[in-house]
């Protein structure tokens, strides 16, 4: 009897082991590089990761479960931002990531701010996501009313490796300034907000979709202002770089803060040409299904603006073959 029990136990363990191995073999992990946890990339990345994931045992579509890719576990990874994400994709450190359209194009072509560097020719687009506005934030009583007022001030340009850092330098240049004309700091997210509140800096830049969490919290705790990025400087910027466009942040996007005219760029989702075509096809298909639509609509304020109609807007880096196949099937490209 004991021999039979022992044999049955061993068989059960072997069966479980084999089943576990089969499940492990069926799993595919897929990373999405985002940005700082206090800004828009990270929460939107979390919503998208949830939408495209479908681990073994998930409910079927229409039963309140995920309609993602079978066996896929996607995760949103915090990062330093656009430049960091592009570098991580190219090096194989991450499967995909978000980046500003300008940063990605310059990386792909080895031009603009990436001139002199090896072009990231394997970079590929999955989808255009949403519009990002360049926020220049100061205290309401700071006396800073334009970009040129930053001269001699203590200003955070965000961390090198972020798209904000790249764009802040371009904005300064378009307005006749350089980082040497001010005391530049490299603060991100809540650290920049706290430094502003505590008087350690006079202003900070951030490129993000509004409303973004760090600024929602800041505006509820302190009297801040958004400084316009307009006039001749903005005109020079948009004329020189086609990725920038004049746009508005409306009144009360942040509590009690007046709206401004500023410049904006597109936030897009990128991967590598080396990623499997069938996988990226299925991920792209999962991004635009009805269940994902529900998650996007309720998951973040920017989610409602992430639509198939704008999925190809401002795309300057070639589509991944899998994404291109989906968009052709959907009739979005010929």
Q: What are the segments in which pLDDT stays under 50 over at least 5 consecutive residues?
A: 1-25
The DSSP helix count reads: 11
Alpha-beta content class: alpha/beta
Number of domains: 2
The rough form would be described as globular
Features:
D-Maltodextrin-Binding Protein, domain 2, alpha/beta, 10-stranded mixed beta sheet, 334 residues
Q: What's a concise summary of this model?
A:
The chain has 11 helices and 12 strands. It has helices spanning 2-26, 41-52, 82-91, 101-109, 163-174, 190-197, 213-221, 231-240, 277-287, 290-299, 321-329, and strands at residues 28-33, 53-54, 69-70, 72-77, 96-100, 123-139, 154-156, 183-185, 203-208, 224-226, 245-249, 260-272.
Which helices and strands appear, and what pairs or packs with what?
Blueprint: H1 2-26, E1 28-33, H2 41-52, E2 53-54, E3 69-70, E4 72-77, H3 82-91, E5 96-100, H4 101-109, E6 123-139, E7 154-156, H5 163-174, E8 183-185, H6 190-197, E9 203-208, H7 213-221, E10 224-226, H8 231-240, E11 245-249, E12 260-272, H9 277-287, H10 290-299, H11 321-329
Helix pairs in contact: 2-10, 5-8, 9-11
Describe what you observe in this structure.
This protein has 334 residues and is α/β, with parallel strands linked by helices. It folds into two domains: 28-130 and 267-329, Periplasmic binding protein-like II (D-Maltodextrin-Binding Protein, domain 2, 3-Layer(aba) Sandwich); 132-266, Periplasmic binding protein-like II (D-Maltodextrin-Binding Protein, domain 2). The chain contains eleven helices and twelve strands. It has helices at residues 2-26, 41-52, 82-91, 101-109, 163-174, 190-197, 213-221, 231-240, 277-287, 290-299, 321-329; strands at 28-33, 53-54, 69-70, 72-77, 96-100, 123-139, 154-156, 183-185, 203-208, 224-226, 245-249, 260-272. Strands 1, 4, 5, 6, 7, 8, 9, 10, 11 and 12 form a ten-stranded mixed β-sheet that branches. It has a two-stranded parallel sheet with strand order 2-3. Helix 5 (163-174) links the parallel strand 7 and strand 8. The longest helix is centred in the first third of the chain and has 25 residues, at 2-26. It is globular. The N and C termini lie far apart (70 Å).
């Amino acid at each position: 009897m004991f021999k039979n029990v022992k044999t049955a136990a061993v068989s059960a363990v072997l069966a479980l082991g084999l089943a576990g191995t089969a499940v492990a073999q069926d799993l595919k992990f897929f990373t999405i590089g985002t940005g700082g946890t206090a800004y828009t990339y990270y929460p939107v990345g979390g919503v998208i990761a949830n939408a495209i994931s479908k681990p073994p045992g998930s409910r079927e579509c229409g039963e309140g479960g995920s309609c993602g890719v079978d066996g896929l576990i996607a995760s949103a990874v915090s990062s330093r931002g656009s430049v960091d994400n592009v570098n991580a994709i190219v090096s194989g450190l991450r499967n995909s990531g978000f980046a500003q359209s300008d940063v990605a194009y310059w990386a792909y072509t080895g031009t603009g701010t990436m001139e002199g560097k090896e072009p990231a020719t394997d970079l590929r687009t999955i989808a255009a996501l949403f519009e990002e506005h360049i926020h220049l934030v100061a205290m309401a009583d700071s006396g800073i009313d334009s970009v040129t007022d930053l001269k001699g001030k203590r200003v955070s340009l965000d961390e090198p490796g972020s798209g904000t850092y790249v764009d802040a330098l371009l904005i300064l240049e378009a307005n006749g300034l350089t980082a040497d004309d001010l005391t530049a700091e490299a603060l991100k997210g809540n650290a920049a907000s706290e430094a502003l509140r505590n008087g350690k800096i006079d202003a900070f830049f951030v490129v993000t979709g509004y409303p973004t969490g760090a600024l929602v919290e800041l505006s509820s705790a302190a009297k801040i202002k958004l400084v316009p990025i307009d006039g001749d400087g903005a005109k020079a910027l948009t004329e020189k770089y086609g990725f920038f466009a004049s746009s508005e942040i409306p009144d009360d996007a942040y509590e009690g803060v007046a709206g401004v005219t500023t410049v904006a760029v597109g936030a897009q989702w990128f991967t590598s040409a080396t990623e499997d075509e069938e996988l990226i096809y299925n991920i792209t298909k999962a991004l635009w299904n009805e269940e994902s639509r529900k998650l996007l609509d309720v998951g973040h304020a920017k989610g409602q603006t992430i639509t198939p109609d704008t999925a190809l807007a401002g795309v300057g880096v070639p589509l991944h073959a899998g994404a291109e196949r989906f968009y052709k099937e959907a009739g979005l490209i010929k």
